[in-house]
Amino acid sequence: MVLTWDFNELVQRQVAADPAYGEALLRESIDTMLSDDLDTGKAILRDYINATVGFEALGAETGTQPKSLIRMLGPHGNLQARNLFNVLGHKQKRAGFALHVAAGSRG
Asked: Is the pTM of this model over 0.85?
């Protein structure tokens, strides 16, 4: 019998064991969105949220219904900048680091 791990559980274990991995996951989410791949960026952000605080707690922190957060970060969700920055602001405070945008060259 093959033993498999649930992907979310695997990400949760990795983030718990290595906080830098969680930070890299959040940065990858933002970089992916800024590279015009919103769907993949939202998927990575969902994984990050599930691996860290979860949607229930994030909803309580941001004043947004958890189901609304799940919907807006879903494949067909309407992620507005205000909501994204609200989520990112809370995640940065909780994680204890800050994200910064810098211009770079596209190759």
From this structure: no
Nearest to 27 by CA among 107, 86, 98: 98
Task: Check if the beta carbon of residue 55 is closer than 8 Å to that of residue 39.
Answer: no
pLDDT digits (tens, 9 = 90+) for 1-49: 555 668 778 888 898 899 889 889 988 998 898 889 999 999 999 999 9
* Number of other CB atoms surrounding residue 58 within 10 Å: 21
The residue with tokens 């960026």 is 41
Q: Within 13 Å of residue 68, how many CA atoms lie on the same side as its CB?
A: 11
CA atoms within 13 A on the CB side of 91: 27
Separation CA 13–CA 50 (nearest Å): 11
Confidence class of residue 106 from pLDDT cuts 50, 70 and 90? low
